[in-house]
Write a structure and sequence with these properties.
The protein is an alpha+beta fold. The chain has a single domain, classed as Roll (Carbonic Anhydrase II). The chain is built from 8 helices and 16 strands. Strands 2, 3, 4, 5, 6, 7, 10, 11, 12, 13, 14, 15 and 16 form a 13-stranded mixed β-sheet that branches. A hairpin with a 4-residue loop joins strand 4 and strand 5. The longest helix is centred in the C-terminal third of the chain and has 12 residues. The termini are far apart. The relative contact order is 0.23. The structure holds 2-acetamido-2-deoxy-beta-D-glucopyranose and zinc ion. The site of zinc ion (ZN) has 4 residues, from strand 7.
């Protein structure tokens, strides 16, 4: 219905909501699944797309990838969560910031969100040696002085995305129930709720515990797939119990009204890119990542 309406009105902007994940597409709902995103969003067919499968024996150890520096992660903040129709975004204030990690600048947080599977099936976007993890957290940061993704999209590292993979644990993640409850308050496309006194440091560990990470250049994993992302995928996983995993996937609905499940894009070809791994014994050196970026520009 949505697509038909788009075509009748001839308004491409209305059709922007017409993309969907693989499991949503059916005869009743002929939405654009990931294999067809690039027909509406040409950049989704580019050569620096995300997510990827990280092959651990092929990564390049880079001694110039120092730890990241988190600012404002301990602050108690009131955050708005919003069902965006494809996932739920937890909006972060600009007081939450990121630097270090050989990123070429200072970054302000914009939002975080999760990717998950279905009941009992994993749903991370990145895979490690072919293994898909139960869930993945993305924290999206925009480089200063840009104010939006649109402004940042022409900069290869205009966006810094931090990715945390979850691993199933016997015990609950002690603070994930707050997130699950918030998801339960935004069941439908467009609905919002506020979590008060939220601390990002309750969800993720301090940066001292996050010295080990993978780094590569890629894209946003939803349309328009902007190729402006410096990705950091941490080695350290976050715990989640099977009870929490079941609860996460049951809270929200897609813009189509179906239960919001399997919200991950399939992995994309590396297309000649290198994946780097930090060496936790390394000394900081801020020239490192520029060298990496320049090399990638030359390849393409
Ligand atoms: C968060 O909201 C509460 C009221 O719900 C308010 O008392 C508090 O000052 C707010 N905190 C911040 C940091 O804005
Ligand atoms: Zn994401």
């Amino acid at each position: 219905m949505h697509l038909v309406l788009c075509l009748m009105l001839g308004l491409p902007s209305l059709c922007a909501g017409g993309w969907c994940y693989q499991t949503q597409s059916s005869c009743d709902n002929p939405c654009r699944d990931p294999s067809r995103w690039s027909s509406d969003f040409p950049r989704c067919g580019g050569l620096r797309q995300s997510p990827i499968n990280i092959v651990s024996r092929k990564v390049h150890v880079n001694t110039e990838l120092p730890p990241l520096e988190f600012i404002g992660h301990d602050d108690r903040i009131n955050i708005t969560v919003e069902n965006k129709g494809h996932s739920a975004h937890f909006h972060l204030p600009q007081s939450v910031r990121l630097s270090g990690g050989a990123l070429p600048g200072h970054y302000r947080a914009a939002q975080f969100h999760f990717h998950w599977g279905a009941s009992g099936t994993p749903g991370s976007e990145h895979t490690i040696d072919g293994e898909r993890f139960p869930m993945e957290l993305h924290i999206v940061h925009i480089k200063e002085p840009y104010g939006s993704l649109t402004e940042a999209e022409h900069d290869m590292a205009g966006i810094a995305l931090l990715a945390f993979l979850f691993e199933e644990a016997t015990d609950d993640h002690p603070h994930l129930d707050t997130v699950i409850a918030a998801l339960g308050q935004v069941q439908h496309n467009g609905s919002t709720a506020v979590i008060s006194n939220f601390q990002l440091s309750n969800i993720i560990p301090p940066s001292e515990e996050l010295r080990g990470y993978y780094r590569y250049v890629g894209s946003m994993t939803t349309p328009g797939c902007e190729q402006a992302v410096a990705w950091t995928v941490f080695h350290k996983t976050l715990p989640v119990s099977s009870r929490q995993l079941d609860a996460v996937v049951q809270q929200c609905r897609f813009w189509t009204g179906q239960p919001m499940m399997d919200i991950f894009r399939p992995t994309q070809p590396l297309d000649g890119r290198a994946v780097y791994r930090s060496n936790s014994a390394a000394r900081p050196c801020f020239a490192g990542f520029f060298v990496i970026l320049t090399t990638v520009v030359f390849i393409h």
